[in-house]
Specification:
The structure is a single chain. The protein is an all-alpha fold and 216 residues long. The chain has a single domain (16-194), classed as Up-down Bundle (Four Helix Bundle (Hemerythrin (Met), subunit A)). It has helices spanning 18-32, 51-71, 97-118, 134-157, 167-175, 187-194, and strands at residues 4-5, 11-12. It has a two-stranded antiparallel sheet. Strand 1 and strand 2 (11-12) form a beta hairpin. The longest helix is centred in the last third of the chain and has 24 residues, at 134-157.
Length: 216
Amino acid sequence: MSTRPGRAGHRAPEAVTGDDVRTAARWLADHLVRHPASAFDAQAGPVRWSCWTTAEHVVDDLLAYALQLAALPRLAYVPLVGPRGEDEIAHVDRAAGTAGLAEALLGGGELLATLAETRPAAARAFHPYGTSDAAGFAAMGVAEVLVHGHDVVLGLAGEHVPFPAGLAPRVLTRLFPDVDPGAEEDPDLLLLWATGRGELPGRPHRTRWRWDASVR
């Protein structure tokens, strides 16, 4: 695996790929199916949504990012709305249970992964945090799966479970250029801190945050 030079002589992780999206989606799907649908009414960690609504939000993000890469709009999101005019277009039938929720998640992940792999390097599409490229949308998809997946698993099981190896460092490099990882810091916990979840030594809790989706 090749690498590119990073700061202070270190080697930075490679760009986030379609396979990274698939890996993240499979990680979360595997945790979803361990719990009955009735458990998903619990609050998802620190967010105000239920675990079910949060998981639906992840599916919605994956579909929205795939649509951005498919249509390549430069000024706004593709103008799709839910059945009641809401921004969220993905709603999973509760009767399908957690198996159906996992299928929707994996399907959204595969769509985003495929678009990320097939769009040319010069392709650009709108995101409110910066016009982005295929690797950027892949990184945002992985970030949504990992961070909100953490919220869901925390609500269901009461604990953080490790992210797939290597994903958090690549997401941090692509989306959080202002965060300089410490040599001894856990990248999973650093990604959670960067998205307003918890504190780390020497890093005060973030009450406001946003990533940088722009191409650098």
